[in-house]
Design brief:
Elements (H helix, E strand, L loop, with lengths): L1 E5 L3 H13 L6 E5 L2 H10 L4 E5 L7 H11 L4 E6 L4 H9 L4 E4 L4 H48 L7 H6 L7 E7 L5 H24 L4 E3 L6 E6 L3 H14 L3 E6 L9 H15 L7 E4 L9 H18 L3 H11 L12 H19 L5 H19 L3 H16 L11 H14 L6 H7 L4 H12 L3 H19 L4 H7 L5 H12 L3 H11 L1
Parallel strand pairs: 1-2, 1-3, 3-4, 4-5, 9-10
Antiparallel strand pairs: 6-8, 6-9, 7-8
Helix pairs in contact: 2-3, 5-7, 7-8, 10-11, 10-12, 12-13, 13-14, 18-19, 18-20
């Protein structure tokens, strides 16, 4: 607490300072001024919380000082020191903003009472100011989020072009677009939507500062994507992108586009930038920067090689030969070596889809609907593990997929203690909206992923990955039924940073898209 004593009588001033120090107030910093003019100079360089001033002083008197404090120090509180004969001036001081007064000769009890009263008023002012600042920040953040939603709907063809909005958001022509991916660190399910939006604003502010532009947007449908609009040349864009990659953790890759002249070209240019990343990004690559001048790969070697193994794979699947199937998938096709051989992420995902298609064709008549749904969920989880660059989890899920479809006889195993499975269920209940995986849960409970997976399925009758997904979808349904949040917000709160993927999973588990389920709930209401 900072206190300024403005009093032209030396011994009166020193007496007040001495009494304040004897009160042993914590963290008190006392300044002294001989007149109002000197007090203003001190306050301009070092504002005080409490100002106690005499009324009659040379140069600038107490009334004028109080008026100045009222106009220039909104979070400060002033009080006056006066004699009985000055009471009309005291009244004027109170009318001009003074909170309280002390009569001379100043007594310790009255001084303490006055200072305590002013200290309480200062705390209230600071509290109100902090609340107003938070409210203003929240309103600004939400307005920015609404802009992001409108922009995201536009680039993903969910909303028609609105040139007025784009220009008002700071997009000027000609422009160059940069698509940047950033890995979120928020725990949405634990900290709520505000923590997500605060993090997104921090990332946007970083990009705005580096690229010196106001036009930066977060794609609310693909939570890792940010779009930057700039007028800089290609070389300068690459330099600035490299700079922010080096300065801040979390950025994954970027795609820099060609200069565009028409705002109507924004959606098509976004698709070009996204396609450039999809075609060129390698698994586990770090901070890669692509641009429109770079040619795309002419051929994906691993994808071509996979075609020759699909026929023998089909044969072994029909024979339910798990050992040979595993060898073809992991060794010949090479999914077990995706880190060693620097695969393109695109070809890994394409091969996963080919494997899924082949397995479904072989087993669609023999496998139960439950196991088919479980297989679909595991394939999706494999792609999510790839996006998280978790190779260990990806390979474990691949093994689970093969066992789920082939339904091979498993080796006898000891009965898993039910208390472990109950602990796992409680852990899932508390953390399912985070990026928990089979591997991370197994590691937490000191068991192998395959052992945990088999034990959980045996005890609960459902795969652990499916169990987690069902929890997420149930939470999303609850949010939709309340009708208070946007669907993109619900996706994040349920643990999905990609709305397209959330839409796909929600429809598989409920039979409705999130939008259709929302419409059904509104009809019921």
């Amino acid at each position: 607490m900072k206190v300024l004593i403005a009093e032209d009588e030396y011994w009166v001033r020193k007496s007040i300072v001495s009494m304040l120090k004897k009160e042993e107030l914590s963290d008190i910093d006392i300044q002294e001024a001989e007149n109002g003019e000197e007090a203003i100079v001190l306050l301009e360089s070092n504002p005080a919380d409490i100002i106690l001033t005499d009324i009659e002083m040379p140069f600038v008197d107490g009334i004028r000082l109080i008026q100045w404090v009222k106009e220039n120090c909104p979070y400060s509180v002033a009080g006056v020191i006066s004699g009985y004969s000055d009471f009309p001036l005291v009244k004027e001081a109170l009318l001009n903003g003074a909170l309280d007064y002390i009569l001379k000769p100043v007594k310790r009890e009255s001084l303490k009472e006055c200072v305590d009263k002013m200290a309480a008023a200062v705390k209230e002012k600071q509290s109100n100011a902090a609340r107003m600042e938070r409210q203003q920040k929240s309103e600004t953040m939400y307005q920015s989020y609404l802009q992001d939603i409108e922009f995201s709907r536009y680039i993903t063809a969910r909303q028609r072009h609105n040139s007025v909005s784009m220009e008002s958001y700071g997009v000027k022509t000609p422009f160059r677009m940069i698509l940047i991916r950033y890995k979120s660190k928020s725990e949405a399910g634990k900290n709520g939507m505000n923590s997500i939006l605060e993090e997104k604003e921090r990332v946007k502010d970083s990009l705005k500062n580096v690229f010196n532009t106001k036009a930066v947007f977060w794609n609310t449908y693909r939570g890792q994507e940010y779009l930057v609009f700039t007028e800089d040349n290609l070389l300068y864009c690459r330099e600035k992108t490299s700079l922010i990659f080096a300065a801040q953790e979390g950025f994954l890759c970027a795609s820099i586009g060609e200069k565009q002249k028409n705002l109507q070209d924004i959606p098509s240019e976004y698709r070009n930038l996204l396609l450039k990343i999809v075609k060129n990004i390698r698994y586990k690559s770090q901070n890669e920067i692509f641009d429109y001048t770079q040619p795309d790969p002419k051929q994906y070697i691993h994808l071509v090689q996979t075609e020759q193994y699909l026929t023998p794979l089909k044969k072994e699947l029909e024979s339910r030969n798990l050992e040979q199937v595993y060898k073809i998938v992991m060794d010949y096709i090479g999914l077990g070596k995706i880190c060693e051989e620097n695969w393109y992420l695109f070809e890994v995902k394409q091969i996963i889809q080919r494997l899924k298609s082949t397995m479904v064709k072989v087993f669609q008549r023999d496998i139960s609907d439950e196991d088919m749904t479980e297989g679909d969920s595991l394939f999706d989880s494999m792609e999510q593990a790839l996006d998280r660059e978790n190779t260990r989890e990806f390979l474990e899920l691949a093994t689970q997929v093969l066992k789920t479809y082939i339904q091979s006889e498993q080796e006898p195993e000891d009965q898993e203690p039910e208390d472990l499975i109950q602990k796992v269920k409680r852990y899932v209940e508390e953390n399912y909206t985070d990026n928990i995986s089979l591997s991370s849960i197994a590691e937490k409970f000191f068991v192998t992923p395959s052992y945990l997976s088999r034990s959980f399925k045996k005890t609960e009758g459902v795969n652990l990955i499916s169990y987690i997904t069902e929890k997420k979808i149930q939470k999303a349904k609850e949010y939709i039924e309340k009708g208070e949040l946007k669907l993109s917000e619900i996706a994040f709160l349920a643990g999905y940073d990609d709305y397209t993927y959330f839409n796909k999973v929600f429809k598989r588990y409920t039979g409705y898209s999130p939008k259709d389920y929302q419409a059904q709930c509104r009809k019921t209401d």
